# Entry
Amino acid sequence: MNRDKIDLYFKAWKEYDVTLLREIFTNEANYIIENKNQTFEGIEEISRYWLRNKARQNNIKLEWKTNTDNDVSFRAQFWDSEECELQEIVGDIHFIFDANGRIDELREYYSKIVHV
# Structure
């Protein structure tokens, strides 16, 4: 069932665990942030993106609700050290899994709220 894989994805995000990230994504996966028109192609680009976020997203609070086996709503709050502001992002993620249950594509859309 994909819900277990989705929980692993959020565990990896919460802990910025690139090793776990590499286990749950295919090597050729695409990570698409639709509202930014940004695509990370392959596990190496995805890993670099996550490592950048690890350096800038401090004290993350993360919650998610699995809507279907492929769709999730999420909320994350963290201090963004690059922007020097408390951010909250609220969005949805759609996952596509390969035959082995690994993430082959992730499509994310979110809205950002800055707390002053």
